[in-house]
UniProtKB/TrEMBL annotation:
It comes from the Eukaryota. The lineage of its organism: Eukaryota, Viridiplantae, Streptophyta, Embryophyta, Tracheophyta. It comes from Brassica cretica. The keyword Transmembrane applies. This is Uncharacterized protein. The chain crosses the membrane at residues 6-26, 112-139. Keywords: Membrane, Transmembrane, Transmembrane helix.
Length: 220
């Protein structure tokens, strides 16, 4: 019971520390004017400035395309860039929350903010969760002598496998059959097996009747 409580506490502590580090990183970027400088569409504004500078439109084609598509052409680019600029969305939304409170957010805005934070938190927490759980299994099998099955399964070792089958006889007795292998046996290919010729042409070493067959070079 105690080890389980400590395990859960370690996960909660790690999650809290990661969330604080994420907030600290966003706030540092805001203080250094790297994020939340001009709203949600900073990336689109930069794109428009580069486009106007290097790809001028003297004939007004872009304006006509915008009119023909009823504004869908620039809006699609704008919101796609906003979707890929997740740190900017997090920083701007966080600034609005700190200035006006959580009540100022709409339901869709809150959902977008939580989804953005979740994506980054997932990336940061994955290795930390693996470290915490691996340390838990290490302590359990070396000092507490529990969770041997879970620890062995986490290693993904192909060898040392076994299974048990039970059978109830007609007289009511229970029979137990256990089959286990220490090492996984290699499949040996017979000389006439399908694919052997292809392996030889590619230069792979194959085992035939327990003996290594030397690779053959392909003549050009």
């Amino acid at each position: 019971m105690l080890i389980g409580v400590l395990h859960v506490a370690a996960h909660l502590t790690a999650a809290l520390i990661l969330m604080l580090l994420l907030e600290l990183g966003i706030e540092t970027c805001i203080q250094h004017k790297l994020l939340a400088t001009s709203g949600y569409h900073t990336l689109y504004q930069w794109y428009k400035s580069v486009e106007n500078e290097h790809f001028p439109d003297p004939t007004g084609l872009r304006v006509r395309i915008e009119q023909w598509t009823f504004g869908f052409y620039p809006a699609c680019i704008k919101y796609l860039m906003s979707a890929f600029d997740i740190p900017e969305v997090m920083a701007v939304t966080r600034t609005n929350i700190c200035r006006e409170g959580m009540e100022s957010l709409s339901r869709s805005g809150a959902a977008i903010y939580y989804a953005s934070v979740f994506l980054y938190f997932w990336v940061f927490s994955t290795p930390v969760v693996s470290l915490v759980f691996g340390s838990y299994l290490y302590i359990c099998i070396n000092w507490l002598h529990i969770h041997f099955d879970e620890a062995f399964s986490s290693l993904r070792i192909a060898n040392y496998k076994s299974f048990t089958r039970f059978h109830i006889k007609s007289d009511g007795d229970l029979e137990v059959f256990t089959l286990g292998v220490d090492k996984e046996y290699m499949c040996l290919m017979s000389p006439g097996a399908k694919g052997m010729e292809a392996r030889q042409r590619l230069g792979f070493r194959a085992k035939i009747d327990g003996k290594d067959e030397s690779s053959q070079k392909v003549s050009k």
